[in-house]
C-alpha cells in the first residue's frame, strides 16, 4: 500500500462508521487516502471525522465551490490508484450500474480509470434481491471487484448475509486484489495443474458410466490460480462450464486419458490440485459398436489407476493437493487419504449434504494435513473456497521454500 493513492467512497449504509477504521488502516499501511461521501452518508458518519483521519478535506457536494466543480471530480478521479466504496448500498450499486452520476461519489467513480472495488452491505433481503444481484453481476462483468459481504447480526435486527466485513478483512482483501492487478499475485511464477469434472468410462460409443461432478469446484480453483498469477493448466473431464480466462484447457474424458494428461505435465508443475471425481473402475471390454437392446446384460469392471496415488509416489518437489468425497467419517477418512496418497493437503468434503459436494455452488468440509492437523471449512461459495485453497497453497509453498 506504500504510496498508493486510494479514494474511499462512503455511501449511506449503517456500517459507514466502519469505513473510518478502513481509512485509518490504509493510512497506517502507507497509503494516501481521500474520502468522498454521499450527502446521505453524512447523516450516519461525520465528514469531520473522515477529514481528520484521512488528513484531507472530504468531497461531498458537487456544487460547493462552483468555480472549481468541473475540475474537482476529474482531478480526484485521475489522482486515484484505486477507488473503494465502503459500504456500498443497494442504491449506490444500482446507480453505478445504471450509469447515473448525480453526486460526487457516483461522478468520481464513473470518471476514474483506476480499478474499482465495492463492499456491499445491506439488509439480507435487499442483498438477495435479484435486482441487486443482477447489478452486482453486471458490474463484475465490467471489471469491478466485489467483496462478498459477511453473514451475521444486521442492524435491522435480523441475522443473515449482508454485513460489512471487518475493516481488517476489507484492507487485506483490497491489498491482495491490488497485488494481483500489479502482477504480484500469490502464485506468480508458479505452474499449477488443476483437474476437474467427472470422468466418463465408456461402455460403447454412446453410453458411459459417469458421476455427478459439474466441474464447478475445479474450475473455480483454476480461475483463482490464474488470477493469482500462476500458469494454470486445467485438465478437465467434460462439463458445461466456460473455461476460465487465462487458463490452458486440456480436455479429457476417461480416467486413463486424465492420467495420461496429468502425468505428461507433472514434472514441470509446482502444484497439482485434484478436484476431479475420477471413476475407480472402467468397463473391461468396451464395445466398438453400439450395444443392441437385450433383456439383461452384465458389465465387467476393472480397476482404474489411482492418478493421485501415482503422483504421490513420484513426488519430487511438487505440492500435492487432493480432494476426498465422503459421505461419512469425513475427517477420519480424509486423515487416512492425506497420508496414504503422500499429499501436502487434502480437502475433505461431505458429499451427502445438499449444500456441499457435487453439482452445487457451495461446499464445506475440512482442510486436512499430513502431520495430523485439520481446519474446519464452514459452508461457503465454491469461489470463496477456491480462494481459500489457493491462499493455503501459497502459504504451504512459502513454508516449503524456507
Ligand atoms: O465438480 P463439482 O460438482 O463442483 O463437485 C466437486 C467434487 C465433489 C467433485 C469435489 O469437491 C471432490 O470432492 N472431488 C474429488 C472426488 C473424488 O474422486 O474423491 P475420492 O475420495 O474418490 O478420491 C480422492 C482423491 O483421489 C481425489 O483428489 C481424486 O481426484 C483422486 N483420484 C481418485 C480416484 C482415482 N482413480 N484417481 C484419482 O486421482
Quick structural gist:
The chain is an alpha/beta fold. Helix content is 35%, strand content 24%.
Name its key features.
single chain; 402 residues; alpha/beta; 8-stranded mixed sheet; 5-stranded parallel sheet; elongated; binds ligand PMT
Describe this structure in words.
- This protein has helices at 18-28, 47-54, 69-79, 90-98, 104-111, 124-128, 130-141, 167-181, 216-227, 255-266, 307-314, 330-340, 382-401; strands at 5-10, 32-37, 82-88, 116-120, 145-146, 150-153, 159-163, 191-196, 201-204, 207-209, 231-236, 247-251, 271-274, 281-283, 301-303, 319-326, 345-350, 362-368, 374-381.
- It is of the alpha/beta class and 402 residues long.
- The protein has an eight-stranded mixed β-sheet, sandwiched between helices. Strands 2-1-3-4-5 form a five-stranded parallel β-sheet, sandwiched between helices. Strands 6-7 form a two-stranded antiparallel sheet.
- Strand 16, helix 12 and strand 17 form a beta-alpha-beta unit.
The total of beta strands comes to 19
Q: Whole-Å distance between the termini?
A: 25 Å
Query: How many strands, what sense, and barrel or not for the largest sheet?
Result: 8 strands, mixed
pLDDT averaged residue by residue:
94
Amino acid at each position: 500500500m506504500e504510496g498508493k493513492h486510494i479514494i474511499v467512497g462512503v455511501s449511506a449504509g449503517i456500517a459507514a462508521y466502519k469505513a473510518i477504521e478502513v481509512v485509518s488502516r490504509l493510512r497506517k499501511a502507507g497509503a494516501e487516502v481521500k474520502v468522498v461521501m454521499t450527502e446521505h452518508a453524512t447523516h450516519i458518519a461525520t465528514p469531520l471525522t473522515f477529514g481528520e483521519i484521512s488528513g484531507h478535506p472530504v468531497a461531498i457536494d458537487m456544487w460547493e465551490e462552483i468555480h472549481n466543480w468541473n475540475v474537482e471530480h476529474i482531478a480526484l478521479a485521475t489522482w486515484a490508484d484505486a477507488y473503494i466504496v465502503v459500504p456500498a448500498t443497494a442504491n449506490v450499486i444500482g446507480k453505478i450500474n445504471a450509469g447515473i452520476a448525480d453526486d460526487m461519489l457516483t461522478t468520481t467513480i464513473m470518471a476514474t480509470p483506476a480499478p474499482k472495488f465495492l463492499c456491499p452491505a445491506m439488509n439480507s433481503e435487499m442483498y438477495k434481491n435479484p435486482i441487486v444481484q443482477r447489478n452486482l453481476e453486471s458490474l463484475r462483468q465490467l471489471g469491478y471487484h466485489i467483496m462478498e459481504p459477511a453473514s451475521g447480526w444486521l442492524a435491522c435486527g435480523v441475522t443473515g448475509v449482508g454485513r460489512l466485513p471487518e475493516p481488517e478483512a476489507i484492507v487485506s482483501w483490497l491489498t491482495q486484489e491490488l497485488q494481483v492487478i500489479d502482477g504480484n499475485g500469490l502464485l506468480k511464477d508458479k505452474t499449477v495443474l488443476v483437474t476437474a469434472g467427472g470422468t466418463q468410462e465408456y461402455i460403447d460409443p454412446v453410453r458411459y458410466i459417469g458421476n455427478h461432478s459439474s466441474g464447478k469446484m475445479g474450475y473455480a480453483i483454476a480461475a483463482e490460480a490464474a488470477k493469482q498469477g500462476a500458469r494454470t493448466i486445467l485438465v478437465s473431464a467434460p462439463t458445461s462450464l466456460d473455461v476460465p480466462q487465462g487458463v490452458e484447457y486440456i480436455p479429457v474424458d476417461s480416467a486413463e486419458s486424465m492420467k495420461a494428461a496429468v502425468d505428461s505435465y507433472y514434472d514441470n508443475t509446482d502444484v497439482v490440485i485434484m478436484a476431479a471425481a475420477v471413476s475407480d473402475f472402467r468397463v473391461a471390454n468396451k464395445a466398438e459398436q453400439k450395444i443392441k437392446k437385450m433383456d439383461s446384460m452384465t458389465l465387467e469392471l476393472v480397476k482404474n489407476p489411482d492418478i493421485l496415488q501415482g503422483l504421490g509416489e513420484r513426488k519430487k518437489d511438487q505440492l500435492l493437493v487432493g480432494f476426498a468425497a465422503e459421505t461419512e467419517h469425513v475427517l477420519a477418512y480424509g486423515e487416512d487419504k492425506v497420508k496414504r496418497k503422500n499429499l501436502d493437503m487434502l480437502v475433505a468434503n461431505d458429499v451427502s449434504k445438499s449444500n456441499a459436494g457435487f453439482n452445487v455452488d457451495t461446499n464445506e468440509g475440512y482442510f486436512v494435513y499430513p502431520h495430523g492437523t485439520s481446519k474446519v471449512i464452514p459452508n461457503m461459495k465454491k469461489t470463496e473456497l477456491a480462494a481459500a485453497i489457493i491462499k493455503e497453497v501459497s502459504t504451504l509453498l512459502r513454508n516449503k521454500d524456507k
